[in-house]
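Reposting from the mailing list since nobody answered there.

I have sequence plus structure tokens for a pair of proteins and want to know whether others read the tokens the same way I do. The first protein:
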Amino acid sequence: MARFSPFEDSLWFATAAPAPDLPSLQGEHRADVCIVGGGYTGLTTALTLAKQGVKVMLLEAQQAGFGGSGRNAGHCTPTFTHFSLPELRRLLGEPWAERLIRRQTQANHQVSAMIRDYHIDCEWQQNGYLQAAARPGAMKLIEEKARQYNAVGAHTEAVDAAQAERISGSPRFYGGWFHHEGGHLNPLGYARGLARAVGQEGGEVYCASPVSEVKKQGTAWQVITPQGHVLADKVIFATGAYTVAGWPQLEQSFRIMRVFVAATQPLDAALRSKVLPLNTTIHDGRGDIYVYKYNQQGRIVASMFPMGRRGREMNYTHQVMSDRLCWLHPAIGQPLRWDYFWYGELDMQQRTIPRLYQLAPGVVALTGLSGRGVPTGSMLGGILAEWALDMPASELALKIEPLHKAPFWMGFGPQLTLRYYRARDWLRCRIEGAALPPHA
């Protein structure tokens, strides 16, 4: 557990609705399905199964949302960041690609419905997402992206520079891709609300119950924790980047990539009317990703990937984040104070698509979300629930694969890719005469 940053450092921990009072596992229990991991994937799986009358028990080593589900930046964008939809179809083949595309692009409807139906207190705002064009030449790709997503039922559009400025408050963009269904929330509050919802539907969630081993016992599986165990017909691992034990070599199926998130002081109402006036989520359009939005208190919450000194030296990191934000929004015109700073860990896969592994008959694991975030973790619960309810493997939205190690180069490949994107952006902006932000 040493690689994980303190959970208590985050804005979300300071502001989320209180956690439900969930006990640790004590003694012997029997269940139809035992889920390991209390993030979005595990919780939505448990919720879906409990609604179907399945006796489901979920075991979490810490507390609900302790991992990436409670540490992410809180934006909820039902897209595929790395691949275009035609590229996904070539990569995954049919019918797998269309099934996954349908689930992912409709995921925000599911998130919104769960928040509404279970009255989850999580600062949910569905005011859209803007992926900006940082240079004129990006607009051609954005127009094609809008066409592709709209063809599968999403509500998106390519917007010009004036529209992008109206949405974002930034004069730096040449246009952008506006996804009307995008949203943002307090991710820890959402996870805690899902845990409550599982209980409302009759499922059981146990915290402070780390799983040390899963072993066969007769026709069932015994899931062992320090103070008790569950005997279950089926077991699902949904521990993602925070996998530390429970099944041999599962933690080697991905590689960790860190991301950091920071939050400013609350901005006054007059400034907020000029900076992010529509309370949208903004991606500044660069491969060296900078994504930001407001929280309920009027703080700007921004995220980046560590690179060199950035993410390691705090004063320098705060300066980089302030300089980028003030360049994007000259209206800020004042020093920014970063009141919160924390890290999350991503379970990276070379395809950046979640992988569903068959560990043994009746035991599966899902890892490799690769930073896909709130909507992906939420929609995956439906896929895992369908597996638990005996849907034929050929009909699932993810192909079941044998467990295998992530290739060694995944340990450094994502960082090299970020550096390549940064250099490519610099060159293209120079060629097209587009302005470059500080530290580009």
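The second protein, same order (residues first, tokens after):
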Amino acid sequence: MKIRKIDSLENFSGTVLVPVFETSVKNILPVKFENLEISSKVFYGKKDSYYLAEDKGNVYIFIGLGKTIDYKSLKTIFRRIASKEKDTLTANVSLFLPEVFTEEQAEAMISGLYLGTYNIGHYKKEELHPFLQTDFELSILSKSDFSKSISKALKLTQAQLETFALVDLPPNKVTPKYLAQWAEAKGKQYGFKVEVLGLEAAKNENLGAFVAVGKGSKNEAQFVIMNYSPKSSEANLKHIGLVGKGITFDTGGLNIKTAGMVNMKCDMAGGAAVLGAMQLIADLQLPVKVTAIVPCAENSVDAKSFLPSEVIQSYSGNSIEIIDTDAEGRLILADGLSYIIKNYNPGYLIDIATLTGSSVATFGYECGALFSNNDAIVKTIQETGESIGERLWQLPLWDVYSKDIESDIADVKNFSGKAVAGAISAAKFLEFFTQEHPAWAHLDIAGVAFLDNEFTKTKHATAYGVHLLTKFIEKIITHGKC
């Protein structure tokens, strides 16, 4: 997407996008722009409405924003325009940005327009979106300089589009090795180091829980380790640790799922969010150290699959009784958390996963479940999520729930066996492997990572977490702490 700034439409020919804040349906004054006047009887800026007009060969799309608007809504509105009005958009599009707009609003609009180019039909023969054509140019009509916001929006959206594809592509394409190779390619492109442990290397490292989950699949598990440091090395950089669940397909294992398996290609959405965040962090050259681990495996059904009632050894040295092979995500995360703490000891530690149906039962599809032992992290990450429309709400980690993971035969069991408090007992299981890390948070995003929306006929990826993790890290950089 080529972008340039213009001062007027004098020599412009194409489509002009004009955002309009709401006036009133009874307003006697029309909406005015250039030589156009639109009566309030037909358009007055109502949120989610838009109006097309033509003047002197140019097409004008007036876009209603309502009286006030939040970041997510603004992004969605402009994604809708780019997605639904492809036939109206030409090789030349101009976006009017009034001086009253903030940097964040400019970022949201550009992000939305770029996200609108996404097409879930990866295996269909379809024409490229106008914005992706080589001759396309977006002109920014504004007296203010929004170049920094626009540049950041393009980098953000590129990472989110990559994440969309990782989650939406089928599981015969996105295998553990595919994710590992993706990480290696992006590491070379954007500037972060990648190390991949295959099955034998994982066994040698005593990643027992990780190995157990992946050993039933013909697609070899891959333990992906990424390290980013800025090119301009600075002293006393904050060190952030990220761990993302990378289950490329989840049958449930021998405790096989009886419903909803068709959507289980999305069970690596937490890992995809970490991968997308690593691309974005490196692309922005943030002044921070980041270590990220994505344990990638396929939970399949085979003669080699791990069994309910098995006792396995984890990387931490603790034994785990397997109550349910469909509670596999927490097993690979347990080894990921233990590994990152022992070998890298980051100052902050966040894990993100499509972990439990319980979180969906609690919050529906509106927000992720947040667990943390650090009040400052809770406050910062919730505020961050609220500001961009990636909401989180905290659930407790009270000691009373510890009994749900107590085992008679092993140090801990992977499932409570109860039909209640599933998200909490899963979080307590993960907490067991954090070695009381003082700044840890767990994000259960099962209800927000893969959704029905207006942009596709089937469920598809949201890239939830890419922006959230990156913006959270930016806040740590800016304020020195949470």
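Reply #1 (J.P.):
I read it the same way you do. Residues 34 and 95 are 13 Å apart (CA to CA).
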